[in-house]
Amino acid sequence: MWDRIASILRENHCFLITSHIRPDGDAVGSCLALRRILVEMGKTVRWVMNHVPPQEFSFLYQPEELEIFDQSMDLEGIDCICALDVSDWRRTGDLAEPLQALTVDKICLDHHPCGGFLVEAEIRDEHASATAVLVHRLLQHLNHPLSFPVAEAIYTGVMTDTMYFHLANTNAEAHEVASACLEAGVSAPRIYEYIYGTSSVARLKLAAKVLSTLLLAGDGRVAYVYATREMYDTAGAVRGDDEDFVEYPRSLAGVEIAIFLRETDVGTVRVSWRARNDMDVSLSARHFGGGGHVRAAGAELNMPLDAALKEVIADAVARVTHADSSSAARSGIDRP
Ligand SMILES: [Mn+2]
Questions:
Q1: How far is the CA of 137 from the centre of ligand 1 (A)?
Q2: Which residues pair with 109 in a beta bridge?
């Protein structure tokens, strides 16, 4: 499959690269890395996203490297589409329809567990820490050297998807790729400063409000926090200021499912899950119409915050309780 992808990339000339809605560091990093590799190969490349990436990633690219999709956009002349870090056309947002309608070569590199893509060539590896790792593997198959601008983008993808190399998806390859990026001149403290080392007053004020909502359920194995619209308004915070808040409940000892719910609009709640031990929160996310990884997943619910809280917490409690009974069944031991 890698040879197929390498030859599709060599044979085509005008590329469109995209990723999922509400891009994270891996979406930005992997797209930008592939964009720069293809430009280095002499190709014409357009990187098009549904949403503007969070501000902390803007240090990575020049404004002219990225286009934000709008319906009037002219996609004439594109001969290959590359979808990165996305497992379903619908997750590309408004691009889904026009991209699916284009009869051109389509490739996909992703590390999400389940996909709905129908593309010519696809690498899907759930064991890869980040899609940026797959872009790094691609370099070897293209026999293309790792340049500094590509390395910065790849490093950002790996670093953010592993949360600075501490989440359970951190593996030897993640460190090998990071090492190669440092060899290529990447400064780890510089990237850290831009992404994690700079907080805003609004973010900290919002964090104080959100932390005060902390609640436990399921005998302390489920922990959750939430944010109302009003909290954002009084803190002067915007979407993006709440990045990784789910890490607060996750940091508690004994917690197996951590949840952060935020009211994005009246009647719309965005939910983030994190899991420990054997918990699989991608099941919860899918149950509520979202998706993600075993240990990190998300969904958007169309219901008021109090209803979302009730349903999402009930689901999590059922999951930790069910895990007990199924492991007891496996081991033949009755647990109290
Ligand atoms: Mn990713």
A1: 15
A2: 84, 123
Distance 129 CA to ligand 1 centre (A): 7
Provide the CA 13 distance to its chain's centre, in angstroms: 28
Residue 24 Cα to ligand 1 middle (Å): 8
Determine the number of helices (DSSP H) and then strands (DSSP E) in the chain.
12, 12
The verdict on domain 201-331 having CATH code 3.90.70.10 is no
Which token pair is 5? 């992808």
CA proximity to 150, closest of 174, 186, 197, 101 = 186
Domain positions in the chain? 2-195, 201-331
Ligand 1: distance of its center to the CA of 21 in Å?
A: 12
For residue 108, the SS3 value is strand
324 CA distance to ligand 1 middle (Å)? 30
pLDDT digits (tens, 9 = 90+) for 39-79: 999 999 999 999 999 888 999 999 999 999 999 999 999 99
What's the order of all strands across the beta sheet hosting 291-292? Answer: 215-217, 222-227, 257-265, 268-275, 296-301, 291-292
The answer to whether 257 and 222 have CB atoms below 8 angstroms apart is yes
Domain 2-195 - what CATH class?
A: alpha beta
Q: Which amino acid type is present at position 119?
A: V
Tell me the CA–centroid distance for residue 331 and ligand 1, in Å.
Answer: 35
- The stretch 303-318 carries a mean pLDDT of 97
Dihedral (CA of 27, 264, 56, 155) sign = negative
Distance 260 CA to ligand 1 centre (A): 19
Over residues 199-252, the pLDDT tens digits come to 889 999 999 999 999 999 999 999 999 999 999 999 999 888 898 899 999 999
For residue 115, the CA-to-ligand 1 centroid distance in Å is: 13
What are the tokens at 46?
Answer: 């357009």
* Cα(307)–Cα(90) distance, integer angstroms: 26
Ligand 1 centre distance from Cα of residue 27 (Å): 6
Q: What is the CA radius of gyration of the chain?
A: 20
Rounded distance from Cα 317 to ligand 1 centre (Å): 27
Expressed in angstroms and rounded, the spacing between residue 73 Cα and the centre of ligand 1 is 26
